Structure formats: C-alpha cells, structure tokens
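PROTEIN DATA CARD
Card holder: Iron ABC transporter permease
Chain length: 735
Origin: Arthrobacter gallicola
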Amino acid sequence: MNSSSNSVSPEAGRLSAAGSSPDGQNPAAQSPTVSRSSGSRSTGWRRPGWRFSGRLPAGQVPAGRLPVRRGWAARRPATQVSAGRWPAGQTATGRRPTGQSLAGQSPAGQSPAGQSPAGRWSAGRLPAGRAAGPAARRDARGTSGRGSAGRGAPNKGAPNKGVPGKGTSNKVASNRGSSNQSASDRGPRGDGLHWLRLAVWAALALLVLLPLGVILVRGAQPANADVLTDPYVLAAAWNSVSSAAGSAALATAFGALLAVVLDRTDLPGRTVLRWILLLPFLIPPFIGAMSWMALLSPAGTVNQTLMALTGSARPLLDIYGGGGVVFLLAVHSYPLAYLVISAALRRVPGSLEEAARISGAGGLRTFCQVTLPLVRPAVVAAFVLTLVANLSDFGIPALIGLPERYTTLTTLVYRYLASGTVTNPLPAVAAIGVVLLVLGLAAVLLQRRLPGGSELGGSGAAALPLQLGSARWVVAALLWCTAAVVCVLPLLALTEQALLPAPGVPLTWENLTLANIARALTSGGALTGIANSVLLALGAALACGVLGLAVGALLTRSKHRSNTALDVTAMLPQALPGLVLAVAWLLIAPALGIFNTPWVILGAYVMAFLALVVQSVRAPLESVPVSLDEAARISGAGPLRALGDVALRLSVPAAVSGAVVVALTAVRELTISILLVAPGSQTLGVVIFNLQQAGDYNSASALALLVTIVGVAGLSATAALGARRTARTRFRKGK
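Structure generated from the sequence above:
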C-alpha cells in the first residue's frame, strides 16, 4: 500500500453529534477533516461520487445511520425524539406519518413514555432546549436513552404542545455541569417504578412493620415484668428452649448424615429413598403427632403387639412427655436440615476434591478435610433454622406434651387465651410474644453473622462419589428400615385408625369401614372448616403471589438504597415463630376492625408465607438478561412497562409455583389459626385439633388422612415441576 495514504485529523472520526448543522448543509463542508494525496486510495468508507471519513453528506444514510443534517446526539431539534430514536417522519424499517413518535404514535414534540409535551420531564429525559453534558449522556445510555437537547430547528410542522411556534427556536443551555447526574435522578418522582416501590412499602408496613411494632410496644411495658418473672412462664420458656435446641441438634446431625449418604455416595436406590425420607416435611407436625399417637400410645398398635408378645399388663412404650416432644420435633425438622446441607454439598467445586485426591489423600480424608469445612456454615444455618421452627411449633407440644403437663410458651399462650385463667390475657401474651421475638431475632442475627459460603462456586467437574464398597448394601438396608419406621409406619397407623370404627378394635376385614371419612366430610363443622381453609389459602396465595413477585422484581431488577431494608422486611417473618405473628395480629385486630373475623387470619397468613414466593421468584428474575430490558426501553417502553413485559412475564411460572406452595401450606396450618380463630371462622386444622381434643380420634384421623394425601400429592407435584423447569433452564444455558 502507498505510504502517502489519506491522513485523517482527530476530529474526522467524530460523528456530527457534537455539533449542529442547518438543514441542507453538509457538515463536512464546514470543517474539512480529510486531506488526500494525489494518486492514493482513500482508506475511508467509499461510495461512488463521494467519500466517507467520519461524516456523511447531507441527506444520505449508510447502513441504518441517521442523516447528518438531522443531528444524532445531544443537539437536535426539539420536535425530534431522543433516546436513540429516528427523526420525526422516519422509522428504522419503514415510513410513518411525520409528527408521530416511534413508540407511542404521539404527536411530534410529545414523549411516548407518559405522553407529556416536549419540554417536560419524561422517563428520565431532559427538557427540550437543555443540553446534556458528557457524563449525563453516558449515564443516560444505560437507563432511558441519550438525552435530547440542543439548538432547535424552526417549527414548521403541525403545532406542538410546549414547543415554540413557527419561526422560533430553542436556545442551548449553557450550564452543562448541572446535568452531570444519574439518569434515575433526572427521572420523575412519579414514574412507574417509584409508585410501585411506594405501594410495596405501604403493603409491607401494614402487613409486617405495624404488627411487629405493636407487639414490641405492648410487650415491653414495665408493667409486664411480673409476667416474665412468673414461675410458670419461666418453666415454659425453659421447656421451649431445651426442646427446640435438643430437637434441632438431633435433626441437624441426622440431616447431615442423610445429605452425605444420599448425595455423595454410590448408595443404591437413592432417589426413592430420598422421597420417602422427605415425607415428614410434607406432613403437618400436628398430623404427624396424631400418627405417632396412633402408633405408640398405650392403646396403639405397637404397644398392643408388645403387650401380647411379652404378656405385660402395662404399655412398654410411651410417646407422651418431654422426650416424645423432642423426638417428634426432630422427626419433622430433619428434612429441612437435609435440604439446606444437601444444597451446600452440591455447590462444593469438584476441582478441590480432585486436587486433594491427586495430592494423595483418600476419599474419606478428602471429605473430612476439604468438603466438611466448606459446608460448615450450612450446617450451622440448618441448626438455626430448625431451632426457630421448633421453637414456634404448637401441635406437637399440645398433643404430646400437655397430657403429661409438659408446657411450652406456645401452649401457655393458648391456655391463657382459651381457658380464661388470666383476667386480661393480652398484656401477658404480648410479653411472651416479645420473648419469642427476641429469641427469633437472636437466631437470625447469629445466622447472618456466619460466613455466607461464597467460596462455594458450584463450577468445575462434579465431585466424585464416595465408594462404600461392600458396605453399601448394609447401609442401604439400615436406611430403608429407618425410613419404614420413621415415615411409613406412622402413616399406616393413622390409616388404620381412620378405617376402624373405634379405638382398640382389632384390625380385620370385617371391621374396616369408611363411615369415619363420610361422617367427617359431611359434618357441619368439617364443611365450614374446609370452606374457610380453602378460601383463606387461595386468598393468601393470590396476595403473596402478587406482592412477592413485586418485591422480588424490585430487589433483583432495580438498584435503590432501600433494597436492603426491603429484603429484610419481607424475609423477617419467615424467621420468627408463628406464635409471634399470631399474637401481633391479635393485638392490632381491634384497631383495624377485623377482630373475630377471617380477615385477621388472612393478614397473618400473608405475613407468614410471603417469603416463600420471594424466594421462588428471586432466582428466575436474576436469570433474565438485562439486555432484554434495554431492548424494551430502546423500543419506547417506560421503566414499569419494560419490567412487566420482560422480567415479570418470564417469572410468572415461578410465582405461580410459590403461590401453590403457599396455598398447600396455609390450608393445613394450625399454629396461627388456633390463636386467631373465632366462631364461624375455624379452619380445617382447628377442626381436626378440636376433634382430637374431644376424643373423637377416628374422625380426626379420617380428616387428617385426607389432608395428608392432598398435601403430599400437591407438594410433590409442585417440587417435580420446579425441578423440571430448573433442569430445562440449565440445559438451555448449556450448564
């Protein structure tokens, strides 16, 4: 190539955005930027008849570029739409009437987002006639497009709102330093996202902040000090803490063992065994307590069999008392510990274990010195979660502990409200609620101070399973026996009691009957409870689905200084005992005019189960590419519409799954309902509990069996669909 090629000045490569050109004039003619030596070929972009060296002749558009005479960036007539759109009268793919904007088909001079006249603030754009500085233009590219301003052309078209009339022009603002602010700050205070955030905060203030604030104020009164020093309250507090801590320790140890054996070994039949061992997680604790009562009570199947075999006149096993409470709490909470620890084990990079193996460490040593230290935060988190869950349980201490006068804080509050032993129970209940609130917050703060496990990248090769060798069949037999005793036998005992006419009747084909199920389904109290539970569950699912999706969208798709507080406010009720939530709504219900109505139960349900939907939609919302939002914004959509048409629409299936989990959980809930129930508003869980307390064990078992079947089937189907959706998403991403 000839060395005497075209020499281009530094200004040649700049597009005509920095300056303005009158109509019909070629900017290149005003400031020559290209010098050409004779006999050399131009290195610029060529077309017959003219040459391109960074600027275009007037009226010609190469490959989708704008005409130079129209102006491209900051200085452009006020009647044209900025944010990267085409001049009035032209589109990217065709022609449209002059005077209409690209996105909203609004008259020239009006912004399509908000239909506001030119010269007004709209969706983060600058008013007509004001120039955006370089920093402002850079900020605007990521949000609402490039700022439009500049020296306007005469308004010769149709009359526009807010645009000077014919023969007038807009002057360029000289103060560019004042425009160096972010695009979100330049946007209006009343845009869509702003109002959405205000609506979400208003809902959370009513559903979360107000109840917790009232219980803190009412329970922390100096006059309630006598309640907290009462011997019965102290004994109940000790029983609550000891049973919750002991059961959490057992559940965490067994859950960690299951996570290692089922997920990191070559155990045969792991899939079916995992589903069976997770059954207690799908069954309400109070129904599980009823199952174990049918199995190990003095008149239960096991005791009757052992008494016949040994000739003993007294039962050999007894499920009632403090030991039974700890055992059953551990049985119904170990699946939670398993899920938390198993998720952490799957995130351990296989490359670390491979490095240890290459260095000469065996499988067991690698697991103990590499894997276990990485999942230690998950083990502690599982202990804290099970501790909080067991601390707030009501069904197991009420059915298993109260017959032996083993009282916890939850059963003590129920006795205060139901028996009338206290003249004014609300201050005492509020004081006990504050104690549980403090214990729950302490557990949450302890968990948040733990390492977050960010070193678990989840990338690299999958970890090699531990080889059990000849012991794999022995371990499999032990686990199958454990699953049969812990998960299957109690359900069989519940089924037996539901199909027999009365307790103690021998199990024979002649004695089996469906009369209990028919009587339970046709009684007035059962029908009312079923109707109330279904309506409340559907209402809670709908409210939690909408509000949870909005909270998740604001947390993952926007950057705001209130996001941390919003996250803590939405997730805090999940970490608090259900008794605290029930007491809080019991205190504010008279002021809101919903005392002794189903509305107070609905409010408590939404407060308790909102976090389930937020957790369900968080990951799908984070996986939506930001480029889709940017494409919607460039096409003319406002912030709220871009959020709704892109991210929210793609996350609706996850929100529906979370709402289904909320409905299936709320329809069998007992702890909140038993404290807020009123005449005519009893739920299905309360009906079953009342039948059990009244001695109608067979009818209670029949209803409990139906609830168990529906709950297990529904939650299993929801989990399977969620797993399929996750696997499909990972397959599309190539993971």
